[in-house]
Structure formats: C-alpha cells, structure tokens
Fold this protein.
Amino acid sequence: MALDGNGRWCISIHGSVRCHAVAEAARNVACSGATPVGGTIGLNFGNPEKPHIMWQFSQTIDGITKACEEKEIPITGGNVSFYNETLGEASISTPVAGDCRHFGRCS
C-alpha cells in the first residue's frame, strides 16, 4: 500500500493539482511492480461553515473523483474529519490517498 498527500496542494487555485495525491499513490504502487486495484482516503479540514474551507473540500472531492475515474481506481473506504483548528485558525487541509497493490495470484 502507498499513502500520499500534501496539504499545500489543497490551497492551490489550480483544480488539477487536487488529484495529485491519488496519482502519486498510484505511481508509487506501480513503481513497486504492482497494479493499483483500490484506494482509501483520509480528508482533514477546518470548519466547513467557513466558505473557503468548504471550497477546498469540494475541490478536493472533485479532484479525487476525476483522478479515480481516469485511473479506474475505486475508493473503498476512508474518513473525513472537519473542525481541525487551533485558536480559530484552520490547520492546513490534508487530503491523503492510499492505493492497494496487486502483485498477481498467490498459490
């Protein structure tokens, strides 16, 4: 399994960077000689009642969806955590994607 993510990608205004966590995890699995067959996500964000936080979350979901559809990798589980703040300031949003690998048949 490979887990990848970078919170700084979330604050970018370019929508395409939000699918990088999925793409990076898939590449890391492929570099090990395996085939990505499924994924999981962990999404940690600040207060979703704040418009810019909800925008980051929405854009992240759109990017992950796009990447998974293009690479034909289903997301089979994960979690979402909101209200990650200290003294009213949101922590850096951190989308993390993990891909499971398949090396072939075990006998």
Q: What stands out?
A: Residues 26 and 96 are 12 Å apart (CA to CA).
